[in-house]
Amino acid sequence: MKTLFLTLMALVLACGQQSSNDEKESKENFDSGGGIDREPEEKEIVTEYKKSGDKHAIALATTKELPECDLGNENQLAYIKDDDKFLTCYDGVWTEIDIEGAEGPKGDKGDPGEAIVLSQNQWVDPITKRVWLIGANVTYSQALASCTGDYAIPTYDELHVAVLHGLGVASAAIDGSDNGWTNETMPANPSAVRVITFNPLNDGYFQLTESHGVMCIKK
């Protein structure tokens, strides 16, 4: 009986020792990462991705400020202010990038617009495209009667600009006047109206009854 009891105790102790060893081995496997996804490997991947995403475009004053083109900045973009151009690091060399591209196809021809049919005494300002009627020397009241419909006596500024653009030359070519009435009267004397002389270019105020050129501008 005593022998049987000792045998049973020996078996219990042996099972307990084996269970302890199994738990220890399981713990070692757990700590070593054998039973779960390996976190360090994931961190290494994330770190490597972050490094590749750190590249960014740089703006420099001259090409002398460019860093060395190597694997650390491969495909990096750089803008050079002095030369107004873009470079990229490629295969160990900073290479200029053509950002303009090829010329596109020619567009369709635009609408030529409404043609202007001019009479002998008409002139078109080549800059402003305004149409003028060039007349002879008349009194101011006659000038008002001549500039009717779509036409009117010009302001001082309108006539002055037209003379600078060649109105005087056009008037001389058709034996027109070398001066013209404006619609600007003298502040202190409404019976005097400002007249511009074309060559040489100057101006002054003259009485309504005097005769000067009538230059009508199309409004």
Polypeptide structure, described:
The chain is built from 5 helices and 11 strands, in the order H-H-E-E-E-E-E-E-H-E-H-H-E-E-E-E. By secondary structure, it is an alpha+beta fold. Among the domains are: 55-97, YefM-like fold; 122-218, Roll (Mannose-Binding Protein A, Chain A), CATH 3.10.100. The strands form 3 sheets. A 4-stranded mixed β-sheet has the order 1-2-3-4, with no helix packed on it. The chain has a 4-stranded antiparallel β-sheet with strand order 5-6-11-7. Strand 9 and strand 10 form a beta hairpin. The model is unreliable at 1-16 and 39-54 (pLDDT under 50).
Find the structural class using helix and strand composition.
Answer: alpha+beta
Low-confidence stretches: 1-16, 39-54
Q: CATH first level of one domain: which class?
A: Alpha Beta
Shape field = elongated
Distance between the termini: 136 Å
What is the tally of helical segments? 5
> What is the annotated CATH architecture of one domain?
Roll
Helix content: 25-40%
How much of the sequence is in beta strands?
25-35%
Compute the number of strand runs.
11
Query: How are strands sequenced across the largest beta sheet?
Result: 1-2-3-4
The major β-sheet equals: 4 strands, mixed
CATH topology-level fold name of one domain? Mannose-Binding Protein A, Chain A
